[in-house]
Write a sequence for this structure.
């Protein structure tokens, strides 16, 4: 059979099959993962973005922020833990996913519940601290005493202060940040506690103390979620969160790239808070 004959035969076979072969799009592995686990909201975004193709591996997720944890207690060590997460619906492209995974995040393969307040579904990105849901254990030594001298009228004076012991962590801006000890089921759950040489401080009875932890509003070791000044209790929504915009900013909101500082205090403020949270570059107190 000559070449023309073979071409005519091929055309006949195609006609018998109903026309030309179908062209199939290559599946995006990121989209396949999210659809397999039934994560809502991502497939639509992925399809909407499919028409805009950028250079592979060059897209960043978000600007980075720094979380500062500062122990201002001069006589006790701080004990707590930290969880940071990004919802699957916040990640729009495979390149953004790669950027997150390359900057210390991992993806949950099963649902994680932090008490009754926070549910992190399959696929959630958590900054990997090695614990459940990526929790990172935090231990900070007591604040260090420092002395400063001044000359006044020929007389020298010395002032002793305590410089906070600080740990800082920089990461792509998460959707939420939670500092806690007990998985939150109420605002009486423990947020952090103080120890001396590893032993919790003694709890002396305090009139009108918070919840079940006698002494939590005074010199006792265990401080509750209600004693972190920006955590919400009604409804229960502990932690701080990425601002979603709008006309007003909630007291527990930060913006992308903004530093978040937790100052743990030896004495409470007027509202019996033992942790002050502030936002912005250079935030926090000495």
């Amino acid at each position: 059979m000559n070449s023309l004959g073979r071409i005519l035969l091929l055309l006949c076979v195609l006609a018998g099959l109903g026309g030309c072969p179908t062209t199939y799009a290559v599946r995006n592995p990121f989209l396949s993962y999210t659809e397999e686990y039934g994560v809502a909201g991502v497939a639509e975004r992925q399809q909407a973005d499919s028409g805009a193709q950028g250079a592979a591996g060059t897209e960043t997720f978000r600007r980075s922020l720094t979380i500062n944890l500062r122990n201002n207690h001069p006589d006790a060590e701080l004990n707590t833990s930290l969880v940071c997460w990004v919802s699957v619906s916040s990640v729009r492209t495979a390149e953004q996913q790669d950027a997150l995974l390359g900057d210390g995040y991992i993806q949950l393969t099963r649902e994680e519940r932090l008490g009754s307040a926070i549910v992190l579904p399959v696929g959630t990105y958590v900054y990997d601290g090695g614990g459940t849901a990526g929790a990172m254990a935090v231990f900070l030594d007591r604040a260090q005493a420092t002395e400063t001298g001044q000359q006044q009228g020929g007389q020298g004076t010395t002032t002793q202060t305590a410089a906070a012991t600080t740990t800082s962590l920089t990461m792509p801006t998460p959707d939420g940040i939670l500092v806690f000890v007990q998985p939150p089921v109420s605002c009486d759950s423990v947020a952090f506690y103080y120890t001396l040489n590893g032993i919790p401080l003694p709890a002396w009875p305090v009139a009108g103390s918070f919840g079940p932890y006698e002494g939590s509003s005074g010199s006792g070791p265990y401080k509750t979620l209600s004693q972190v000044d920006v955590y919400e209790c009604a409804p229960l929504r502990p932690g701080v969160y990425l601002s979603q915009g709008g006309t007003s900013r909630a007291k527990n909101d930060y913006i992308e790239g903004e530093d978040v500082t937790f100052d743990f205090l030896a004495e409470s403020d007027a509202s019996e808070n033992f942790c002050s949270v502030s936002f912005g570059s250079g935030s926090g107190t000495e």
Remarks:
- The CA atoms of residues 127 and 196 lie 29 Å apart.
